[in-house]
Design goal:
The chain has helices at residues 3-18, 27-38, 47-58, 79-84, 96-106, 151-154, 157-162, 166-169, 180-187, 203-207, 212-215, 229-240, 258-263, 265-280, and strands spanning 63-67, 88-92, 112-115, 118-119, 124-131, 147-148, 170-178, 194-197, 219-223, 244-248, 252-257. The chain is of the alpha/beta class. It folds into two domains: 1-42; 43-280, 3-Layer(aba) Sandwich (Rossmann fold). The strands form two sheets. The chain has a seven-stranded mixed beta sheet, with helices on both faces. The chain has a four-stranded mixed beta sheet with strand order 4-7-5-6. Helix 1 runs antiparallel to helix 2 (27-38) and helix 3 runs antiparallel to helix 14. The longest helix is centred in the N-terminal third of the chain and has 16 residues, at 3-18.
């Protein structure tokens, strides 16, 4: 663990311990947040994370929309920059008991708006499949991140291998839904720097709802883990048609608009190096 990560973990634990005893916007919370932002940092090793790190250096006050935030901590690719920079944004999480943890983690951050909704093709309500809350220590820590409009993704062979009784653990809940456009109108969003999506197989459907020409996000990042090859390629083709290039790892794909690369020499150099290295890796 890098020295920064060790110090950051101490600060995060202190913030968590003090949260029940302090009010939102208190000086103590503010001081801990400022300390977190001032810690020296090293670039991460993983390529997609490197891009996010360098992007954050170029855009230290970026605005993001995150769809499928979970509790804002587990496997969140934006968390380090949200805590280390003056980023602002909207975090969306539909599962009520998970959203409560998200609220505990980010509710005191005045730069972050939290929405206990799902993003869908129309406003209203829709059934969502999720894994019930449990204290069973035998489940992986990320079990409650399994929530989707697609039951087949929740019950995939990949998940059954890890949670053999997952069919008995899946429940259905009717959740309030907004379209991406309705979410933006509600919060007065006219432009966005980053859209990051993690919705267990529904990511492409959400990307198709985004007015990429009007909002012109600099980065669109989505979870590719539950896509087959054809769906992943179709999603990339859709984004390429709107001026994006993509860089993938086994979990996610990050797409950067070519205008951003053209304006930022160092970011462009890193991007080209990483894309070239990815092409040279054996498949």
């Amino acid at each position: 663990m890098h020295l920064h990560n060790a110090f950051a973990a101490v600060v995060d634990r202190a913030a968590g311990a003090l949260r029940p005893h302090t009010t939102e916007g208190s000086r103590i919370r503010g001081a801990l947040g400022s300390l977190r932002q001032k810690l020296p940092r090293r670039p991460p090793a993983q390529p997609v994370a490197q891009v996010i790190f360098e992007f954050a250096r170029c855009y230290p006050k970026a605005f993001f929309i995150q769809v499928g935030s979970h509790d804002g901590t587990q496997l969140d690719p934006l968390r380090e920059e949200i805590l280390a920079r003056k980023w602002s944004g909207i975090m969306v999480e539909p599962v009520p008991f998970v959203f409560e943890r998200l609220r505990q983690n980010y509710g005191s951050n005045r730069r972050i708006a939290l929405e206990n909704v799902a993003i869908a093709e129309r406003d209203g309500e829709r059934p969502l499949y999720y894994v019930r809350e449990t204290s069973d220590d035998g489940l992986p820590a990320w079990y409650d991140a399994l929530a989707s409009f697609r039951k087949d993704v929740i019950l995939s062979e990949r998940h059954k291998e890890i949670i053999p009784d997952i069919e008995q653990r899946v429940a259905t809940i009717s959740v309030p839904c907004l379209t991406f456009e309705s979410l933006c109108k509600k919060h007065g969003v006219t432009g966005v720097d980053i859209v990051q999506i993690d919705t267990e197989g529904f990511d492409f459907e959400i990307i198709k709802l985004i007015d990429l020409q009007r909002l012109r996000p600099k980065i669109v990042m989505f979870e590719r883990l539950h896509f087959d090859a054809a769906t992943h390629e179709a999603c990339l083709a859709h984004l390429r048609a709107h001026g994006y290039e993509g860089l993938s790892n086994p979990m996610d794909t990050l797409c950067m608009h070519t205008d951003v690369l053209a304006r930022n020499r160092k970011l462009n150099r890193l991007w080209r190096e990483l894309c070239e290295a990815a092409r040279l890796e054996p498949t």
